[in-house]
Amino acid sequence: MRLTSSPYESPSLTLPPWVPPPGGLRTWGCGEHFDAVRLPATLAPPLIALLQAAGGHGPVLADPYSGSWHILLDPDTVRPGPWARHGIRLLRPGTRLTIPAAQVTAGTDLHWHTPPGAGYTHAELLNGALTAASGLTSTPRRAAPRPRASR
Fold it and tell me: DSSP assignment of 14-83, as one string?
């Protein structure tokens, strides 16, 4: 874990109580303090850019090890529906998500792409960004099996 200064850090931002102190990690179940949508790392940068252009500045976790990113949303506002496109998944209530300290904003381990403290991204805003980004495609992790040649 590497600690860096972040352009999102501001003395006026108050960290939510679910964020661990510097150097710490905590694990929370989705639905306790936030809901979360998981997306492939290949889709994350353009989708996050669309969200931020539309005013979405909620927390976003990047996990280079697993190749996935997580957008944290207002708790109890997301309903099952159109999330399962482009490899994007709404995490079920109770799904555990590890949260690093707010200062962990770079590195090859779990870190914040957009640190917490400026509120959440609203589900409607994310849905709008997904609709606008309908041309995005995800690269699958594994190639599909090849058909066997007949003898």
Answer: ---TTSPPTT-EEEEETTTS-EEEEEETTTHHHHHHHHHHTT----EEEETTTTEEEEEE-TT---SSTT
